[in-house]
Amino acid sequence: MRVPGARRADLAVDLGTANTVVFRRGDGIVLFEPSVVAIDDQTGRVYAVGDEARRMLGRTPATITASRPLRHGVITDFDTTEQMLRQFIRRAGGGSRAGVIVCTPSGLTQVERNAVVEATHAAGARRAELIDEPMAAAIGAGLPVAEPVGSFVVDVGGGTTEMAVTALGGMAVSGSIQVGGYDLDDAIVRLLQNQFKLLVGQEQAEEVKIEIGSALEGRERAGAGEIAGRDLTTGMLRRIAVHADEVRRALERPLAQIIDAVKDLLERTPPQLASDIATRGVTLVGGGALLPGFDELLGRETGLAVARDPEPLTTVARGAGAALEELDTLRSRRPGRRE
Predict the structure, then answer these.
(1) Which pLDDT belongs to residue 324?
(2) How many CA atoms lie within 13 A of 121 on its CB side?
(3) Could you tell me if 92 and 49 are in contact, meaning their C-beta atoms sit under 8 angstroms apart?
(4) Residues 52, 1: Cα–Cα separation, whole Å
(5) Domains in the chain: ranges and CATH
(6) pTM for this one?
(7) What residues pair up with 99 in beta bridges, in sequence order?
(8) CA nearest 318: which of 153, 141, 89, 140?
(9) In this model, does residue 142 exceed pLDDT 90?
(10) 8 Å CB contact between 283 and 154
(11) Helix or strand (DSSP H, E) at 265
(12) Which band of pLDDT confidence, cut at 50, 70 and 90, is reported for residue 41?
């Protein structure tokens, strides 16, 4: 029971390119919504955020603009991000006295990190701290990050893929590439344009990926699916059937980029930690972990055992939530913090 006047509820926010997940101390995950904002261009005010705004993508009237204010984990529209965060923090029950930990890609520059802190303060948080996504992912996956043993986590998000080898409470080596779930969607968009002369949106491509996409032959959920779009030749609407093997071939390049980045990190890992990883394997989290066969493909290409977190979409937020207990420690270690 919380005593009246006691400390406010702290929040952990996984501010992702695709989705924002909020963890509230004592309650767990309390919000999971797309990182999308619809703005009324005439007034400059937020028309909708999250699920409601996502349904408006590509369907808004002239006076409403729906967009994603982050790209590859980086804030591309500060004001819109601030308004989105304000809405999400309010919905999650964090008032003006809330302390907030925000997960960020490990490859962000100090300027980009400062932008996240500023946006979080502007959204109403009393305190704003950052935690690297790979570290939060490792904590959320239950890896022994504080022990003198190497653990390898790979987080395939919407805009970036984050990876790190953790040991003794820190990241011994880490990597970040701007390839993620959206690049898989874009690959399907290009497939439909080039092979079928059909123009579709990214949301439709994502549906195809979920329905029949896979990383390995025989792992897809269905052999074929249907999609409608605009015929680039006639300009008319057309519906076609697309097969799982065609989609799988389209996904090969972005998946290979992710696997190459994992191999590169393994090459940069110190020998003793590499020995630990050879024994313990890799933990796969993030939305990309849900692509059928990707864990098996990653295992084949690296020669390591690959385990997928049971709830990969919320792993990072849960890990940041666990780090809330260390908020004061994080605060004392983070350079350039703001009161």
Answers:
(1) 85
(2) 13
(3) no
(4) 34
(5) 11-135+316-333 (3.30.420.40), 144-308 (3.30.420.40)
(6) 0.89
(7) 127
(8) 140
(9) yes
(10) yes
(11) helix 244-267
(12) confident
